[in-house]
């Protein structure tokens, strides 16, 4: 199994420090928070060379509240800006040599349709419009990515972070509508614990669609600190011949992950989680070999 | 043997006089000992018809609340207390003896930080006064912990245990919920045992809020924990089948369960009874 950690959990820490940490604990690569403007591509390449690591993937930073990042918005200007932003992420992903760009078709953090619907009918109608928009936006970007031989992976996230696309079934339905060969699925163990009836079964059912995994325990902390059935998950990953990367996103306890990663009291947890996560997951891999 | 209760939202999408009485009748038909009334709007609650319906059905009632946004207790203790007292008056009028749920905070109110000592102290002081009011009416209070997306005040059971200890009233205890535990706790067993001395009320809810036993909650750990905690409180089934937009928004339930209310309730009660017997609750 290949392991990475997404650098969004380290807030604005210099990349060199992140590479040093991941290399020390034996990670194969790094997943980057997909905000291309944050980075110097030459620096990333040189760090990859120096530490003999690679960028496994980029997570398109389609977060609610950042203007021009909502692929599903009923506002055409906003939506077009978001499509342009994600095409920029495609370019960036290619430039840093990663094979996969993760996509949030509905911005993380927005849990109602735009426009404050007052009735169920109004809600459903706005939701349908936003869904059509998201399908069209992802289709446009997938065409652009295909020309550059890049895979997009759509990620379901839990109900408290979005009101659409919270389960594997919904992701498969979404893919059918987008209808593009280079659009696949990323599953996240933390989100699955909230919204899937059976996360292990979801991995099995995702099958070939599953090209990448996000990993944290049920309480979003390092694997081993919650109640996720990692043994079952690893068996399922083996059964579907998963050859992607497990990209970790362990976050310290707290109501707001954005705040939890910044608090100075939590800084020592960065090394601790990085060390514990890979050690725990590798111990499960070994357990299954025996 | 524990008492078994059911939250009325299994059957209805909103508590009105008519819908409430329907839920009371349904809960009795399935065999629950009591119905939990989501008493969210004390200002338009009519106790008398419900008191009669409960007597006809031969079951009891408890109430659960979520403080309104303008009554978030750390910021507006007086408003929070006034809301709870008004709920207590209504609950007393229907003959209920337990008020639980989000009694210390409003749902979905955040500061961007964790709870401060000052905020917790405001809650301890205010709920102490509310507990006195409740005692006069023969009612006990249960402080519920809910997950990080619904509040920052109390997420893990052990956090709330300190507050229950600080309030230090014999009619004030801790209200656990397996749905929230699934997101917040390290496992299901330890917190129940650690909080054994204060635990008084349990919501039994699946990881996806649907039929219990069909999600990721580790029920073996839950029941073993309750047994080892020597838990004597009630077990309250909480599955949601309603499609009320307010409720959907409050608990972020965008996908209603696939199964009918009656099926959720019957299978749920059977599940709770079997497990309770297994572990000797």
Secondary structure elements and pairings:
The complex is a heterodimer of chains A (290) and B (281).
Chain A lengths: L1 E5 L8 H10 L4 E6 L6 H11 L2 E7 L15 H20 L4 E4 L16 H27 L4 E4 L13 H11 L4 E6 H7 L3 H8 L3 E6 L14 H10 L5 E4 L8 H4 L7 H22 L1
Helix pairs in contact in A: 1-2, 3-4, 4-5, 7-8, 8-10
Chain B lengths: L3 E4 L9 H14 L3 E5 L8 H11 L2 E8 L9 H18 L3 E9 L10 H20 L3 E5 L12 H11 L4 E6 H7 L4 H6 L4 E6 L14 H10 L6 E3 L7 H7 L9 H19 L2
Can you put this structure into words, describing what you see?
The complex is a heterodimer of chains A (290) and B (281). Chain A has 290 residues and is α/β, with parallel strands linked by helices. Chain A has ten helices and eight strands. Chain A has a single domain, classed as Alpha-Beta Barrel (TIM Barrel), CATH 3.20.20. Helices cover 45% and strands 14% of the residues of chain A. Chain A has an eight-stranded parallel beta barrel with strand order 1-2-3-4-5-6-7-8, surrounded by seven helices. The radius of gyration of chain A is 18 Å and the shape is globular. The model of chain A has no long low-confidence stretch (mean pLDDT 96). Chain B is of the alpha/beta class and 281 residues long. Chain B has ten helices and eight strands. An eight-stranded parallel barrel of chain B has the order 1-2-3-4-5-6-7-8, surrounded by six helices. The radius of gyration of chain B is 17 Å and the shape is globular. Classes of the chains: A alpha/beta (290), B alpha/beta (281). Chains A and B meet through helix 6 of A and helix 6 of B.
Question: Main attributes?
Answer:
heterodimer; A: about 290 residues; alpha/beta; TIM Barrel; eight-stranded parallel barrel; about 15% strand; B: about 280 residues; eight-stranded parallel β-barrel; 10 helices; 8 strands
Span between termini of chain A: 16 Å
Examine the secondary-structure arrangement and name the CATH architecture of chain A: Alpha-Beta Barrel
Shape of chain B: globular
The unreliable regions of chain B are none
**Count of distinct structural domains of chain B:** 1
Decide which structural class fits the backbone of chain B: alpha/beta
Binned, the helix content of chain A reads 40-55%
Oligomer: heterodimer
- Structural class of the helix and strand makeup of chain A? alpha/beta
Rg of chain B is 17 Å
**What's the helix-strand series of chain B?**
EHEHEHEHEHEHHEHEHH
pLDDT averaged residue by residue of chain A: 96
The neighbouring-strand order within the major sheet of chain B is: 1-2-3-4-5-6-7-8
Count of helical segments of chain B?
10
Number of domains of chain A: 1
- pLDDT < 50 runs, ≥5 residues of chain A: none
Give the overall pLDDT of chain B as a whole number: 93
Distance between the termini of chain B: 6 Å
Largest sheet of chain B: 8 strands, parallel, barrel
Order of helices and strands of chain A: EHEHEHEHEHEHHEHEHH
Number of strands of chain B: 8
């Amino acid at each position: 199994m290949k392991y990475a950690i997404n650098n969004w959990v380290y807030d604005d820490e210099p990349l060199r420090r992140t590479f040093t940490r991941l290399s020390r604990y034996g990670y194969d690569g790094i997943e980057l928070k997909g905000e291309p403007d944050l980075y110097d591509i030459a620096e990333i390449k040189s760090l990859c060379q120096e530490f003999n690591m690679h960028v496994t993937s980029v997570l398109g930073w389609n977060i609610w509240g950042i203007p021009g990042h909502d692929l599903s918005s009923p506002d055409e200007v906003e939506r077009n800006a978001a499509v342009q932003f994600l095409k920029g992420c495609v370019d960036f992903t290619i430039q840093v040599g990663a094979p996969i760009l993760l996509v949030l078709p509905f911005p993380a953090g927005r849990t109602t349709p735009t426009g404050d619907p007052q009735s169920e009918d109004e809600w459903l109608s706005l939701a349908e419009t936003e869904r059509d928009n998201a399908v069209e936006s992802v289709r446009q970007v997938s065409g652009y990515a295909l020309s550059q031989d890049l895979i997009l992976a759509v990620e379901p996230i839990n109900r408290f972070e979005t009101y659409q696309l919270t389960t594997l079934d919904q992701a498969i339905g979404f893919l059918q509508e987008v209808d593009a060969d280079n659009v696949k699925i990323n599953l996240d163990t933390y989100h699955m614990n909230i919204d899937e009836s059976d996360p292990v079964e979801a991995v099995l059912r995702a099958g070939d669609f599953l090209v990448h995994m996000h990993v944290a325990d049920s309480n979003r902390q390092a694997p081993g600190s919650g109640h996720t059935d990692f043994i079952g998950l690893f068996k399922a990953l083996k059964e579907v011949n998963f050859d992607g990367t497990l990209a970790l996103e362990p976050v310290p306890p707290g109501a707001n992950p954005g705040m939890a990663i910044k608090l100075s009291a939590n800084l020592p947890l960065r090394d601790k989680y990085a060390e514990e996560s890979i050690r725990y997951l590798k111990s499960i891999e070994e357990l299954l070999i025996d | 043997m524990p008492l078994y209760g059911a939250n009325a939202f299994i059957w209805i999408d909103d508590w009105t006089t008519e819908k409430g009485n329907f839920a009371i009748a349904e809960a009795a038909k399935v065999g629950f000992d009591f119905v939990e009334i989501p008493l969210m709007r004390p200002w338009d609650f009519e106790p008398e018809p419900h008191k009669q319906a409960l007597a006809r059905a031969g079951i009891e009632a408890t109430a659960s609340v979520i403080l309104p946004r303008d009554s978030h207790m750390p910021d507006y203790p007086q408003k929070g207390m006034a809301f709870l007292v008004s709920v207590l008056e209504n609950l007393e009028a229907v003959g209920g003896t337990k008020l639980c749920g989000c009694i210390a905070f409003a749902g979905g109110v955040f500061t961007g930080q964790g709870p401060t000592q000052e905020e917790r102290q405001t809650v301890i002081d205010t709920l102490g006064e509310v507990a006195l009011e409740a005692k006069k009416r023969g009612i006990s209070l249960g402080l519920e912990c809910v997950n990080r997306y619904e509040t920052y005040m109390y997420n893990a059971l052990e956090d709330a245990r300190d507050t229950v200890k600080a309030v230090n009233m014999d009619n004030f205890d801790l209200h656990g919920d397996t749905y929230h535990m699934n997101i917040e706790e390290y496992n299901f067993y330890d917190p129940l045992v650690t909080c054994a001395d204060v635990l008084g009320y349990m919501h039994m809810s699946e990881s996806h809020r649907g039929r219990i036993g069909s999600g990721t909650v580790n029920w073996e750990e839950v029941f073993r924990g309750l047994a080892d905690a020597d838990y004597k409180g009630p077990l309250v089934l909480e599955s949601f089948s309603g499609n009320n937009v307010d409720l959907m928004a409050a608990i972020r339930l965008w996908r209603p369960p696939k199964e009918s209310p009656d099926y959720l309730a019957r299978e749920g009660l059977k599940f709770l009874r079997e497990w309770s017997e297994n572990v000797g609750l």
